[in-house]
Amino acid sequence: MNGFDTAGLLAAAARYEDALRRDDVSALDDLFAPGAQTLRAEGGSALVGSTHVAAFRRRRGGAPPRWLRRVHLRVVSPDDALTVSETERLDGGSGLQTQLWHRGPDGWQVTAAHVSGAGPAQGTPGAAAADPAADPFEDTATWRRPTEPAPLPAGSGDGPLRGVRVAVKDLVAVAGQRTGGGVPRWLQQARVNPANAPALQALLDAGAAVAGIAQTDELAFSLMGVNAHHGTPPNAAAPGRVPGGSSSGSAAAVAAGTADLGLGTDTAGSLRVPGSFCGLYAWRPTHGAVDTTGVLPLAPSFDTVGLLARRAAVLAAAASVLLPAPDGGPARRPGALLRSRTLTALAEPATALAVDAALTALAVQTGLPLLDVEDDVTTEEVRAWTEAFRTVQAAQAWAAHGGFLTAHPDALSPAVAARFRAGADVGAQDLAAARATIERTRERLDGFLARGWLCLPSTATPAPPVDSTPQEFEAARAGTLQLSTLASQTGVPALGLPWGRVGELPVGLCVLAPRGADRSLLALLDEVAPREP
Amino acid sequence: MNGFDTAGLLAAAARYEDALRRDDVSALDDLFAPGAQTLRAEGGSALVGSTHVAAFRRRRGGAPPRWLRRVHLRVVSPDDALTVSETERLDGGSGLQTQLWHRGPDGWQVTAAHVSGAGPAQGTPGAAAADPAADPFEDTATWRRPTEPAPLPAGSGDGPLRGVRVAVKDLVAVAGQRTGGGVPRWLQQARVNPANAPALQALLDAGAAVAGIAQTDELAFSLMGVNAHHGTPPNAAAPGRVPGGSSSGSAAAVAAGTADLGLGTDTAGSLRVPGSFCGLYAWRPTHGAVDTTGVLPLAPSFDTVGLLARRAAVLAAAASVLLPAPDGGPARRPGALLRSRTLTALAEPATALAVDAALTALAVQTGLPLLDVEDDVTTEEVRAWTEAFRTVQAAQAWAAHGGFLTAHPDALSPAVAARFRAGADVGAQDLAAARATIERTRERLDGFLARGWLCLPSTATPAPPVDSTPQEFEAARAGTLQLSTLASQTGVPALGLPWGRVGELPVGLCVLAPRGADRSLLALLDEVAPREP
pTM of the prediction? Predict the structure, then answer.
């Protein structure tokens, strides 16, 4: 609604959450409209009258901590709005809070509230897949069996990641094993890795253990998680849907609960997309911030090694291990959360709405202002930068793997092979033009990030059905690339928050921060996610 | 809000409840606004988009039955309103439903809904008092020990009231026992009753059993349930509050669960008031419809014998036994539920609001239109009719018991004795004037009842604290008499529904029907209350 005071309402909602956390009953009283008609309903009954509500609050002695996941804002009039907030509790249970807000002389106040909760969902990823009789590693769409007799490398067994089981994407060197890259012919010709990739070694040194080697899309050049050779890993968070890729096996394993952490790569979205489809926290680091040694390249200008996790705290702890030593200063908070109407509208409408609810929750939970960017990008710009990215990616991918494709023309499925071969035809002039476009995109994004962190959908859709046609998969990939390649080509860190829901399907909210601000970005998780119980 | 379409909104809400009962998913779909923003949240999570909500409804296959108890309507704009509905389930559990309504081209539709439920409350009357070690009959403020060696009369043991335990007000003849009337000196001089009062006998013949003889206010001439001789029965539904009177012991016993049915009398409100204070269904019959033989009189022009119960079905079954044989025709439904703004405003504001929520629930649950009476009474009229009633009541009470008071000047507490003595001074002219006022009141009410059933607060306040001052008790009594004596002086039947809540204190909604329409009035209970599980 034009002229609606979204900022004021969200600020009031943020004050409410803050007061609730601190059990500041006076502040909570002030945020409820005084009067006999004000009401608060919980579970099965209502209290009517602000004095009864206030008395209840004093009796209660604090509410259990909760974290906002989605805030659905419905504007009724310039001075009236409803918020329906979905929350997560420490025990994995969830809650709902509906509030009717009115703006009067004392600002935005709640005139009616309805609170309810539910225990931990039966369908929680991990819980659902826990069939003690089944050996999860028999699922060869998710896990690749080691080919070498050497045992999987052991970690130090102690440290901040003690007990964390890692699903290592089959693009990352595991000592004593060969790297398969999602392609049987590649595995066949690969040499045994003499050492773990440094990123994996860092996790092991911090106490993590290798759960297994996780499947990947062919040479990581896909986003859907469909692999012609070993099949499509099941998506425990969205049954009947693809897991997304190319870190498909890592994501599927973490979603199913057979691993706690996914170590993967992200060139054009290969962590953020499966994170979005499988309902996982995902982190793509600043380009160059995490050592990619020992990792199969796809397009080195954009390649990164990053992480996936069900639990925010696991992601944050593991990322801290991979990042360069902290500079000692406190995490920087952004001045605002920024939304681009253009980028949001590139997602399908229900996804855009879902991500908007997640973004609103992030703003209310952190108290950060939520602003629309003023000089928004145009769809023409987005089309241009996506095309530019694809040009450079294809050229670099051909440079990396053209030799293998030439030597083994049938090793890849036709669709993926065609993506590589497109890179063979990129001329120097086209490449220079693409690089110039990318440079402009980088300047454009830096302009936004000077004012706040840019928030956008991680993917244009939730996970497509496994039985989608190739055309449908390609459409989903093309739509998502318009969103996902922005971080890729500008090198900024990206954090995927798995909070959106389209029906019951997860979809991610992606937050972009300035290059090098990974620790600040990850510090956001402390504000918005429960610590392990 | 002026011009708000309350009737249209309540009609839509009634259609919604009806469709929900029938699991008519198409009708439910039609009552939800189409579109991507429409949402439905339950327990801990939300579904966004009318198609997702519709799909959920088809998967669900019907909702458990529920009955509305309070509907809080909050008008936001001429085209927008919130309803928060409190419901009761078959298992005694409760539920909440918040709905944001918008009036668009297709009429009133829900744009956002939040549903939650809770199990049977721990504090349910009856459950709370169930200490198996304690003998409830040792509570002599509630129960009067039999003075005679004869056993309490047994019932037939079978029939529609099988298993129903009756708390018999100590104003009603119990065979083999004396009637105490709440006054030790009266009990002392009373003769042993040769037979049960016919009303009691009818209940016993239908299978009910006598739980015990329940205390009463002194000679029934009070409304608070405070008795200087045996104390104040505890109110299990409102701890620390009086139970109301004069059927105080019957109400306290039923609220505590040591009886299922209270057999009592109502002259000026002596069933409806304790029903309101103790959260019980209460029925005052059409004057003359139930035999008062064997019952101590107070003011015969107004005296009735009626009932109290926790469960609506028990009240309805017992009332059916007491009433003359049905004429065989179907129960008549009123054309509307009527509200008098003047009468509602005679209750204290929080009580008026609470009763309004109950009345709105009754309208939505039954689908009956809720109309404000057009030619409303004035506060002057009410003052006049209350005074007229008190004049006639006092004169008749003195006529009934003046002899006893003269013979035993110290038998009653001073406050109650003063009420009787006021009747000694009523002159013939005052009495004639009062009777004329009452006649006008009767015509006035009959005018209303020709258009619908009149709904008003059962009491002006919830139960006052037990430690109220005499002045506070007198103020509560005077306020309530303005409401309760309307049925008394016009002889119409009254049904008290225990649905209002001021904070956690119960307060009753009273429905008045035309004289003789008791069975139709009680048939309302079938529409609004769960059958016994």
Answer: 0.93
